[in-house]
Amino acid sequence: MAFLSDTLARVKPSPTIAVSAKARDLKAEGRDIISLGAGEPDFDTPDNIKEAAIRAIREGRTKYTNPDGIPELKAAVAAKFKRENGLDYAPEQVSVGTGGKQVLYNALMATLNPGDEVLIPAPYWVSYPDMVLLGGGTPKIIETTLESAFKVTPDALEAAIGPKTKWLIFNSPSNPSGAGYGHDELKALTDVLLRHPHVWVMTDDMYEHIAYEGFDFVTPAQVEPGLIERTLTVNGVSKAYAMTGWRIGYAAGPVELIGAMRKIQSQSTSNPSSISQWAAVEALTGPQDFLKERATAFQRRRDLVVSMLNQANGLTCPVPEGAFYVYPSIKGCIGKQAPSGRVIENDEVFCTELLEAEGVAAVFGAAFGTSPNFRVSYATSDAALEDACQRIQRFCGALR
pTM above the 0.90 mark? Predict the structure, then answer.
């Protein structure tokens, strides 16, 4: 009898975490490494949020809380959804978890049965398919293309829906492509979903506030109120508020679903850190002016990276609407030989050779379900990005 669960064999470790770990190891060995693999802002958590956490510690707010969040944070989340998205949720419709990942995982664990299918547009965040597999479901990938700006079309969504479909996981702006769906594009998708009442929508709106000129963020239940009773709207403080390590995500949805998610969380981690919860209250209710300033900085970096990568031999880099990633195609590099003598057969080989030859760490596209591409995070300094892009240009220019 095997000791480890058979379920574990269905999933793999996170490639993005593996790339970051590899970069750290090489730096520790003395290599000059620029890591473009991490999915977290380089900005610091704002001081008012830090002070709220310190105040919580001093006031002794360090005990267990309700399993899925303190009332003050649930109220702040409900107010945020009303203020920014025009969505009416009561606090009892809100769940707070240890990061957005736990919230997504709880929802899948609470709803999936063997045979249930979850639609996931590719390229996708690396964790979506594995969370579905851990929950006992079957991921069903919807392919997109560079030509469609890595956005799923209504026809492709319609064709993917079947009798076993339970969820669509929808991420905009996207990790890894940065693609964002405007109102009309999203309305075309929600029109499809209205015709299939057995399909629920799980949004991942984590990059809502990292959106650029010409793109106005909207979320599915906001565009089509008729879907609100079968939508779980997920967000968090990690990206916009530079609070990745604080581990607070949240969601709002129908009471029955939120209650089922609470049951899962009460028997796994129980409550998120009480201190982090009080910090998140301040994040959602305190000053918001810095959000636009940081989005402007990210847009400047995006423009730098897109311009420089499009000057590299063999690369084609589309312009994303949001998030802090680009997802260039390496189609023009396939079949060429790296300085080491190795042939670039796929995007994983490309990223491996790039790291060895130039010390630039990026994540290969197969990890996100779409090849031949790679993901670059531009959540680092302008100087580091310019240096990294020059190295990528040099590497591509050396391919023969």
Answer: yes
